Amino acid sequence: MSIDQRQAKRYDVEVSAEVYTASAVLPASTRNLSATGVCLDVPSELAEGGTVGVSLFLTTDGIEDPDAEPLNIRAKVVWTSPREDEGFSSGLRFDDSDATGRTAIETFLSQMG
After folding, report:
1. Residue 104 domain boundaries
2. What is the mean pLDDT of the chain?
3. How big is the CA angle at 56 (ends 78 and 7), to the nearest 5 degrees?
4. Which member of 5, 9, 37, 83 has the greatest number of CB atoms within 10 A?
5. What pLDDT does residue 2 have?
6. Which residues pair with 80 in a beta bridge?
7. CA 40, CA 26: separation in Å to the nearest integer?
8. Measured CA distances, 1 to 17, 64, 78, 79, 97 (Å)
9. 19, exposed or middle or buried, with CB in 10 Å at 0-12, 13-18, 19+?
10. How many domains does the chain contain in total?
């Protein structure tokens, strides 16, 4: 999928995340984020076409609120690629049925300008 085919604007933003697969919970961080998907850096390869759970620790003014619950959303792994330094980058598309999660992401992204 080319950049021109994407449904929503992507924002370069780094927030902490966790990826839940059938066999592990992986620490992750975002490379970019949109209302419809996310690019994550993860230590292990994610299976393309698989569905995973993602927890995003959204920030306010760059500060993570320790009392705030993470945003939990399901996503499909669209692509995965090894990184030069170590680990993998993966592109995920959020599950369309999770309207509450998408609204929370849109609200977070609207603060970015």
Report:
1. 3-110
2. 86
3. 45
4. 37
5. 43
6. 90
7. 11
8. 24, 32, 10, 10, 21
9. buried
10. 1
Dist CA 80 CA 49 (whole Å): 10
The predicted-structure confidence for 2-52, as pLDDT tens digits, reads as follows 444 556 789 999 999 999 999 999 999 999 999 899 999 999 999 999 999
Report which DSSP code applies to 77.
Answer: E
CATH number at residue 78: 2.40.10.220
What is the Cα gyration radius of the chain?
13
Closest by CA position to 70, among listed 39, 104, 46: 104
Burial 22-44 (b: 16+ CB within 10 A, else e): eeeebebebbebbbbbbbbbbee
Instruction: Indicate the residue type of 78.
Output: V
* For range 71-98, the mean pLDDT: 92
| C-beta of residue 52 within 8 angstroms of C-beta of residue 77 | yes
